[in-house]
Amino acid sequence: MQKKVFSVIVLACLTVFSAAGLPPVIAQSEPAAARSADQTAQPAGTAASVAADETSENEEAGPENVVQAAIHPIDQQVNELLDKNQDTHGQIQAIGKGIELWDAELNRVYKELMTAYTGNEKAKAALKTAQLAWLKFRDAEHKHLSELYSIKDGSMYRIFHNSDHMELIKARALELKSRLDTLNDAK
Question: What is the pLDDT of residues 98-107, one digit of tens each?
């Protein structure tokens, strides 16, 4: 199980590096036997040595067995909007739509989690307290981001501000979804 999780993490990192136009930190396209000793010698416990071990153990797995991180449908929709209109106004509108969609997802998951806690008033009260605290944090963080980006010149900082705000809401929605999944797995 740990090797599968690590493989997914490595794949996610490589995907991020690729999307950012950066060279991958860990890239091995040759079978382990074809690499020279100096290429395969990695300090034990490093990401590269673990990836090398993983590669050699799963060389016959083939690309059809590679797990790819799924893009959330909301992110997919935002990406499509970002691709359609790449000027500043279009980017701000696309991310604004993302904020709207992630906020709706957050509210949906919160309500679903509260429903899942039916009969457990302590859990409901704890979730409500946590969510109210998170809303205060969200508002304070939004104010902080507004101040941060207000001192920067350039329209790209409006995009960064909106993107940071969207990511904050997205993170909370996914956090609550993970808790809901954990609760449902326990049943």
Answer: 999 999 999 9
